[in-house]
Amino acid sequence: MLLLLPALPLLTNAETPSEEYDVKLAYLFNIARFTTWEGGKASDPLPICLIGTNPFGEKLKQLAGRKIQNRSLQISFVDLHTLAGCRLLFISASERQRLQSIQYYLASAAGDGILTVSDLEGFVYAGGMVQLFREGSHVRIAINSKSVEAAGLRLSAQLQQLARTPPEVND
């Protein structure tokens, strides 16, 4: 399970937007690998959902069927009212204007056990769980531990060690 984690920093250089999202997709896969969700059977599928515009292109679909801890990944494109079956939710930058609505919905209706990940600026400061951001030519992650714990999730210590503090939101 820990085989890819040491290589993750090597994957963090991103030269073009396409390469940046390839790196972010690798992060998304590894974040799922190093997250523990309570409940469910070990053989249940692991739904990874995306709300908004797909910045990963066709490569996101390549994750479908891959296994994490004997669970097959399912990739779904969802809207605000179909989040309940998700375990990991990537909130696209296209959802900036709806972020408060999405977080409100998650907190009130379907949020237990859904790990939220986004590359929106200030995502962790706004209550999101994991933010992907650029630091120079590298892609980094930030973790809002309080939000993760409130959802009943656990992130591995190795993943938490990779976390950095993202820049403040520019108004």
User: Which topology does CATH recognise?
Assistant: Rossmann fold
Number of helices: 4
CA radius of gyration is 15 Å
Could you list the spans in which at least 5 consecutive residues all have pLDDT below 50?
A: 1-7
How many strand units?
9
Topology at a glance:
Blueprint lengths: L16 H17 L1 E2 L9 E6 L15 E2 L2 E8 L9 E4 L7 H12 L4 E4 L11 E6 L2 E6 L1 H6 L3 E2 L1 H6 L9
Characterise the protein shown here.
This protein is an alpha/beta fold and 171 residues long. The protein has one domain: Rossmann fold (3-Layer(aba) Sandwich). It has helices spanning 17-33, 99-110, 145-150, 157-162; strands at 35-36, 46-51, 67-68, 71-78, 88-91, 115-118, 130-135, 138-143, 154-155. The longest helix has 17 residues, at 17-33. Mean pLDDT is 86; it is low at 1-7.
Summarize the structure.
Helices cover 24% and strands 23% of the residues.
Search tags:
single chain, 171 residues, alpha/beta, Rossmann fold, seven-stranded mixed β-sheet, two-stranded antiparallel ribbon, disordered N terminus
